[in-house]
Design goal:
- The protein is an alpha+beta fold and about 600 residues long.
- Among the domains are: about 40-120; about 185-390, no CATH class.
- The strands form seven sheets. The chain has a nine-stranded mixed β-sheet with strand order 20-19-6-24-5-27-28-29-30, with helices on both faces. It has an eight-stranded antiparallel β-sheet with strand order 16-15-14-13-7-21-18-17. The chain has a four-stranded antiparallel β-sheet with strand order 2-3-1-4.
- Strand 10 and strand 11 (about 235) form a beta hairpin.
- Helix 2 runs antiparallel to helix 11 (about 515-525).
- The two termini are about 15 Å apart.
Length: about 600
């Protein structure tokens, strides 16, 4: 991954006379393309026609969700958010709840494009040949691409640059990402969860009790509703086997109202090597009665519960007992001025447990908000005490991408431990800094194509809102320039899995599909609102190689800086030579003749923290 450290504001602020006609030309051409993509919607329409007859949608469509592109706003019954105006047209995010809704879309002359929402597979990997071998220096990408030379000779380390990580989320509590999260003026991170999963409900109100050894909250006496966001369902704490004890709260900030809001946040994993986590948290109104501004999390107890539930430790074991304390005495307060919820348990300076960062979550399932009054975002701590929102990474992919960009290289990473004997052989301890350790990041979490579109809109400065009760869309999207990024990293896109003609035929020619055109659109300055700076999009070429024309969408976009993978490590015996294109890496030309990828970087294997 190569991170281009460019300040887009400086590029576009002056807007030389020679550049302005080119920008106008691209704006016109992209708008024409967006206005004509209805011809590419054949497969999406076919899916709706089949559904209107059978009531069955293909398995790959996420939660019956579609993006509908129309010539004018339509008050769809199950709109997730208000439609976005793109030029003279509108983009709707809709749940197709019934066959009748599907028929209405099919017969509405205002509908120009039907895009079924599809999950992106982050967990697929490129299989190595059986004779594949790693060389001891395969992690030294920074030496190959001469990152340190850029730091030393040009003094470019990412300072003053904001990078959007459009991916599966980021664990902002990772020590190597310390200080990298961009913060809003409200004090929470500028990151955004489009999936609706990152919400914790505090549906139990408790008062403190004085006991001989201190103050307690009678946590064990209640049953807690837990939002299992990755499954879009609720569960009770006793149903999932959480055995609770009362919580000691000596030393924490006192609730002004006397009411402590208590709950559990579930952070579910979508891959085998990451455990589900359950965090016990308490909201406190520390200054104004009824205005909840502070959260405490029993992080060591939560870690013990999570590890034991995953089968990694025994509840009767020594390690579990050394962690669990059912106490907030040793926990610090988190809130609008301290949004990264993580803790170093053993004093080595590296966080051992993380709940992520307080951020903004699109409450698309109305877990604690009411979209009828335009209330659809949970921004950090819900001040009424209903819950809180964090961003986390259920896959690990987004955290790896963020680390490749901005890691501080604090952690000692042990590589190449073959564990053949009791002694560690062939081991190397390294630090793994990113290419731009001085940059800040805005992470957006997404698991599907629609999520990524919402992530793009977020880093472009748009804030989604709810649907107004009259159904006439009097509420528009808000603009928040604080969350705008200079560069958007898109380490996703696959010619066979993400955008495929035989799955979603609405994306016919790569580079002229909706996603590529929309990326082109968002790249241009001043096209969304006054002073919109434009964004430099970096996109993966995908894993669809080795054939020609296998470039992935949205890496096929004209304005994307598309990055392919090389075999700089030449560790595979049947792929000899240095700096070859990796066999799996997607490549051009695009259907309209463009050469892709634009740049290559080591990507066949490597390590990040």
């Amino acid at each position: 991954m190569i991170m281009l450290l460019v300040n887009t504001a400086s590029i576009y602020s002056a807007q030389p006379t020679s550049l302005k006609p080119q920008i106008d030309y691209y704006e016109d051409e992209i708008q024409k393309s967006l206005n004509s993509v209805e011809a590419l919607s054949i497969q999406g329409i076919q899916i709706l026609e089949d559904f209107s007859e059978t009531g069955v949608l293909p398995d790959y469509i996420k939660n019956n969700q579609f993006m509908i592109y129309t010539s004018s706003p339509i008050p769809f019954q199950n709109s997730i958010i208000a439609p976005l105006k793109i030029g003279s047209d509108y983009l709707h995010f809709v749940e197709i709840s019934s066959q009748g809704v599907a028929r209405n879309i099919l017969y509405d002359e205002r509908v120009k494009l039907v895009l079924p929402d599809q999950l992106v597979n982050f967990t697929s990997s490129v299989s190595l040949p059986s004779n594949g071998q790693l060389t001891p220096n395969s992690y030294v990408i920074k030496d190959i691409v001469q990152t340190e030379r850029v730091w030393d000779e040009f003094n470019v380390t990412g300072d003053g640059v904001t990078i959007g990580i459009i991916d599966s989320g980021v664990d902002l509590g990772l020590s190597d990402l310390d200080g990298s999260a961009k913060l809003l003026s409200s004090g929470i991170t500028a990151s955004f969860d489009a999936t609706g999963a990152g919400i914790g409900i505090s549906n139990v109100t408790l008062q403190s009790e004085t006991r001989p050894d201190g103050q307690y909250l009678p946590v064990s006496t209640r049953n807690y509703t837990i939002w299992l966001g990755e499954e879009q369902r609720y569960a009770k704490s006793n149903e999932i086997g959480l055995l609770l004890q009362d919580l000691k709260i000596d030393g924490i900030q006192t609730s002004v109202s006397g009411n402590y809001k208590v709950g559990f946040m579930a952070q579910q994993s979508l891959v085998a090597n990451i455990a589900d986590q359950f965090f016990l948290f308490v909201l406190v109104d520390s200054e104004i009665s009824g205005f909840y501004d502070t959260v405490y999390v029993d992080l060591d107890t939560s870690l013990a519960i999570s590890l034991s539930r995953a089968g990694n430790i025994l509840e009767s074991g020594r390690f579990y007992l050394s962690l669990v304390d059912w106490s907030l005495e040793d926990e610090e307060p988190f809130g609008f001025d301290n949004p990264i919820i993580a803790r170093d348990l053993d004093g080595d300076g590296i966080n051992d447990v993380s709940m992520g960062g307080l951020s903004t979550t699109l409450d698309r399932y109305s877990v604690i908000t009411n979209p009828l009054i335009g209330d659809i975002l949970v921004e950090g701590i819900d001040t009424s005490g209903a819950g809180l929102a964090t961003i986390y990474d259920p896959v690990g992919h987004g955290t790896l991408s963020a680390s490749a960009a901005v890691s501080k290289g604090q952690s000692d990473i042990l590589l190449f431990d073959d564990k053949a004997t009791e002694e560690i052989e062939n081991a190397t301890t390294v630090n793994l800094p990113g290419s731009a350790p001085g940059a800040q990041i805005v992470a957006t979490k997404g698991l599907s194509l629609a999520d990524f579109v919402l992530g793009w809109l977020w880093v472009a400065g748009y804030k989604p809102v709810g649907i107004d009760p009259e159904g006439v869309f009097g509420i528009d999207w808000d603009i928040n320039r604080e969350q705008v990024v200079d560069i958007a990293s898109n380490s996703w896109g696959d010619a066979g899995l993400v955008i495929s003609d035989d799955v979603i035929g609405a994306n016919s020619l790569k580079g002229q599909d909706f996603y590529s055109l929309f990326l082109d659109y968002l790249s241009l300055p001043n096209i969304l609102y006054n002073d919109y700076p434009g964004i430099i999009f970096v996109a993966s070429s995908g894993n669809g190689g080795p054939g020609y024309g296998t470039i992935a969408t949205p890496g096929a976009a004209s304005m994307a800086i598309t990055v392919g993978a090389t075999t700089s490590f030449h560790f595979i015996e049947n792929n000899l030579g240095k700096n070859d294109v990796a066999w799996f890496s997607g490549r051009g030309p695009t259907p309209y003749g463009a050469i892709k990828p634009d740049i290559l970087a080591p990507g066949h294997a490597g390590f990040v923290n």
